[in-house]
């Protein structure tokens, strides 16, 4: 009986949310047009008609509102690819984007396609998507409320034109501890600061030694974060790649990479970043292992870091900790706020870790372009945004529904008044080199020698280039064989 009541309540709540959406969506259709039709959807992610997540996230409400439109999924990969069967073979994994492009031009083309942000430029350059601007103008579909992180990011991939829309996204911002700035009478950071301005600010606010040390800035709130991975947020807007365009060799033995590593080493020397984590030095790491502090692993929540890059999904943790501070022995509530992630002067406003969810466009070869456009309008409309705006981890693309939750007050705009940096399709790397992390590990190890002053930046980069190229060649020549672990005489078995 209790279970039945629970189900009835859940169903009632679902209908309360869905019915207004259904009414809104029905208004977009011609009242005299109830002909049964099929809308075909395909993605580069392998979602199929049996995928519950995709249906719940994107299609169920539309199907409810449009009972005369049947959603059909066009598969872009077989089950062996979806469930890892290819991993048992030496055969290279097919490229999902290439498969999608093939399907888009086939005998049974999808009407709507969904891709990742890093794939969007490729599919636009191949003239496979319908430009949406004329449709937006014709239907007076309002896009002025779509945040810059989404609308400008998508426009950048299409040379200023819109070929797709995305209903949700995730982003990062620069969080700061107000008390640490007040303690040294330094002004808080502001929106649109450059990286160098933030680094200079870090020097002003950092103070103390040992367990009493207060650090100025980190690319992450987490203790023990490796600078090699953290600084990718700094390098991404500069367009610096680890690989050549053919993905055959590294491209790290360059002046650009040298400049970045020299700068990072100097900033580490100037104590802009927290001290390097050294597991062999107990005194050095005592504050990170403090049993009296429930958040010792987090530099920011422990009150020992003034500024850090934070993902929107992490905000919820800080809010909950502050609300329940009385239940956390050793935790002091933090007064904080956020500003936009810093950027380079030559790429003002570009940066941060921005990902878009549900990037959808209309196939140029679609047989049902009209319903495809109605679907995209619906998923990117105000009613859908209002319904999805309660998520704690994803942000809806419409600014009107982006507000701090539960009466909180912080600078929400910092998460969306930025544009994403160009992104490489790293999936191509992982398909070609499943053990690519081993090549990255060489770079991480070499950066450590630079930070510790035992090698110059160019020496370390040349070594990374040489050892990395040799490792990549071994991976290509013998995908399932053993490789030499970066010139150190250590042999590593590549996973099948």
From TrEMBL:
Keywords: Signal, Sugar transport, Transport. It comes from the Bacteria. PROSITE patterns: PROKAR_LIPOPROTEIN. Residues 1-24 form the signal peptide. The keyword GTP-binding does not apply. The keyword Transport applies. InterPro entries: Bact_solute-bd_prot1, SBP. It is found in: Cell envelope. Belongs to the bacterial solute-binding protein 1 family. This is Multiple sugar transport system substrate-binding protein. It comes from Paenibacillus eucommiae.
């Amino acid at each position: 009986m209790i279970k039945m009541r629970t189900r009835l309540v859940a169903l009632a709540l679902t209908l309360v949310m869905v019915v207004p959406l259904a009414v809104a969506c029905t208004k977009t259709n011609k009242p005299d047009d109830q002909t049964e039709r099929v809308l075909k959807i395909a993605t580069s992610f392998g979602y199929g008609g049996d995928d519950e997540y995709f249906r719940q996230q994107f299609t169920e409400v539309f199907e409810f509102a449009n009972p005369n439109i049947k959603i059909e999924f066009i598969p872009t990969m077989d089950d062996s690819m979806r469930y890892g069967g290819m991993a048992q073979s030496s055969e290279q994994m097919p490229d999902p984007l290439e498969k999608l492009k093939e399907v888009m031009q086939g005998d049974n083309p999808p009407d709507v396609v969904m891709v990742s942000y890093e794939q969007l430029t490729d599919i636009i350059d191949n003239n496979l998507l319908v430009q949406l601007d004329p449709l937006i103008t014709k239907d007076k579909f309002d896009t002025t409320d779509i945040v810059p992180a989404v609308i400008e990011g998508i426009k950048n991939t299409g040379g200023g034109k819109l070929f797709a829309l995305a209903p949700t996204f995730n982003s990062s911002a620069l969080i700061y501890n107000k008390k640490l700035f007040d303690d040294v009478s330094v002004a808080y950071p502001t929106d649109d600061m450059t990286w160098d301005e933030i680094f200079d600010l870090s020097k002003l606010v950092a103070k103390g030694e040992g367990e009493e040390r207060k650090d100025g800035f980190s690319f992450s709130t987490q203790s023990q974060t490796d600078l090699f991975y953290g600084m990718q947020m700094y390098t991404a807007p500069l367009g610096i790649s680890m690989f050549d365009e053919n993905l055959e060799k590294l491209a790290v033995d360059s002046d650009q990479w040298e400049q970045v590593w020299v700068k990072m080493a100097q900033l580490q020397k100037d104590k802009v970043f927290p001290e390097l984590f050294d597991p062999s030095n107990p005194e050095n790491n005592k504050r990170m292992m403090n049993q009296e502090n429930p958040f010792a692993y987090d530099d920011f929540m422990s009150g020992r870091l003034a500024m850090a890059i934070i993902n929107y999904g992490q905000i919820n943790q800080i809010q909950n900790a502050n609300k329940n501070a009385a239940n956390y022995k050793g935790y002091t509530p933090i007064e904080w706020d956020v500003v936009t992630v810093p950027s380079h002067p030559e790429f003002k406003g570009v940066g941060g870790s921005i990902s878009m969810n549900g990037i959808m466009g209309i196939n140029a070869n679609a047989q049902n372009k009209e319903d495809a456009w109605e679907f995209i309008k619906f998923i990117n409309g105000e009613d859908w945004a209002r319904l999805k705006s309660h998520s704690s981890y994803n942000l809806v693309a419409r600014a009107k529904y982006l507000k701090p939750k539960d009466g909180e007050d912080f600078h929400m705009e910092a998460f969306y008044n930025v544009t994403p940096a160009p992104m490489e399709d790293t999936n191509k790397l992982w398909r070609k080199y499943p053990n690519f992390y081993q090549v990255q590990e060489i770079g991480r190890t070499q950066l450590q020698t630079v930070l510790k002053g035992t090698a110059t930046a160019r020496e370390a980069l040349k070594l990374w280039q040489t050892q990395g190229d040799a490792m990549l060649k071994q991976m290509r020549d013998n995908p399932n064989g053993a490789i030499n672990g970066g010139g150190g005489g250590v042999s590593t078995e590549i996973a099948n």
